[in-house]
Queue: 3 jobs
Job 1
Amino acid sequence: MPPKKNEEAPIPRFGRVHNNLKMGIVGLPNVGKSSLFNLLGEEAHAKAENFPLCTIDPNEARCAVPDERYDFLCDIWKPPSTHPAYLHLTDIAGLIKGASTGLGLGNAFLSHIQAVDGIFHMVRAFDNPEVLHVDDTIDPVRDLECITAELCLKDLAYVAKQRADREADVKKSPNMKLPPLFFSVMDKCTELLESNQPLGKAEWTAAEVDKINELIPGCITLKPMVYLLNLTKKDYYKGGNKYCLNIKEWVDSHGGGLLIPVSVEFEEELKSAEKAGDTAAVEALLEPLKAKSRGSALPKIVKCGYSELALIYYFTCGEKEVRCWTVQRGATAPQAAGVIHSDFERCFIKAETVAFEDFKEHADGKSMAGVKSAGKYRQEGKTYIVQHGDIIHFQHNVTAKKK
């Protein structure tokens, strides 16, 4: 038999490859960032006042990733201990024009963005004279331009410094030369940033991605970005307003990206009714959305943020615990086992696994007998790539000696 053709290697990712990544909520002052943070985060209590720069230091919280599969498994086992997957959030102070040169919170703000791994860019898309705006008038496209320009200017200065430092090192060592890829990558980054184009939205080869991760890993515009459009409750019911088309056109012209309409006004009313146990009020708030098969935007925001960070999770299930274990997309079975304990990775033997849908279809309660009879219970080795929603039991030999 002729040998199989080698599959094209996947393009490497920008940024950290880690299981504990964070999304930061970014935007101009008074667009609803802290209010959304309080809605999403468990035990989140960020100040949300009607004046610019109410938030100074970043606030951190986490929110459970909603998943019907996890709920299904918890209902079957009813264990004393349950652990969902979590998205980690950071609420970052509002940016103003000139932040890249030190205005407002300036470099402190931008360093907070550098510390997160992905960005929820929140845009105000509603008129309300009672809610202050730093520019007095509402223009979401202008606001998008402002934020993007500040991030690009910060990255431009960072790229220029890294380039100058490398070139200075070469001058000190006559026998040392910079490869052509160095110059082509740096030139392309500079051209994109000068055009107010985020680096993460451009097309790159695998070699270029590796070089960027080596040379300029701290660039803010390399981070995945999700745009959140904050609407009034009325516009959220309608599914948009006069600003939405212009916002979409701007995003498309700057590399594209995911847009999620959300109404902080609606979400706050819904959460208040749910906490009060007022089912009639909850139904009244959700009724106008049923015809469009929509509801709260919060679950979608959490799921999309988790996915944009290239995170997935697998399940472990038993009488004592049902738990989601977060891993990077593309993790092998031993790497996934290592999330539970480093010895599990070191002493990995095999992974006994079944896809959730196969378990749901063939299992008899907690028993795997039906799954095994249907041929859906698999034994996977060290090269197996864990899939989102796998149910896994790891076999290991923890008595093996360390090498």
Job 2
Amino acid sequence: MNEWVVLLRGINVGGINIKMADLRAALTSAGFTDVRTVLATGNVLLCSPLTAAEVKAQVESALAQTFGYQAWVVVLDVPTLRAIVDSYPFDAERDGWHPYVVFGSDDSHVTELSALADELDPELERIDEGNSVLYWEVRKGNTTDSTFGKATAKAKYKATTTTRNVRTLVKILA
């Protein structure tokens, strides 16, 4: 039995509102065990003998059937998430800055976004490549209007990326 981290994109922030108790119930009904949610922004830990790709497909199907929306999720195992957090290249406690990880399920999209590195103002934001992720540091108050923030919000990346604060990821791993 494997423990998986499932990161849902765009719930409880963009018009798709799901109660965490309902989310846990839906995923339990879909056959997953030990389903736990962390915060109310679509962070789930669950157990399943399935592969990551199978978990992704089953979770997306269960969410579509239960909540009536086209769900997009990123699935990874706990050791992989721990390695991603441990590899954060910036100071996650830097005062006045947000530490983020952008997860991608399409490597070509991660590559496209990483190409923006040279266009960014380092006084406002920086990115660095990781293992199928991008690490992003941005000044507080500039997340949505920064060059990188605007790029990640484009429709073409909606189904393949999701962003989490490093502090949230630490809570998932706790």
Job 3
Amino acid sequence: MIILDVISWVLLGLGGFFVVVGGIGVLRMPDLYTRMHAVSVTETLGTILVLLGLMVMAGWSLASFKLFAILLFLLFTAPVSSYALANTAMLGGTKPLLDGEKQS
């Protein structure tokens, strides 16, 4: 039982770390596209790790099945929503910063 607790807390801690790194990425990156990249990668990984940690805590139960369903939904929707947002921004005229350009 203690090993499962350690595994779940490690997963929860790593997930929280990635969520914080994604938040810092939003603040530090220069334009929309690099911010979206930082958030989409780290937030998806952080959320997956948090959900896996909660699944380990819950054991084999209905709660684990529901958390797994949420995880699958997240894996299918997060990349699609990131693509849709980037495509809409590009069609709306938002240009990415190129090397050496300053943000206006």
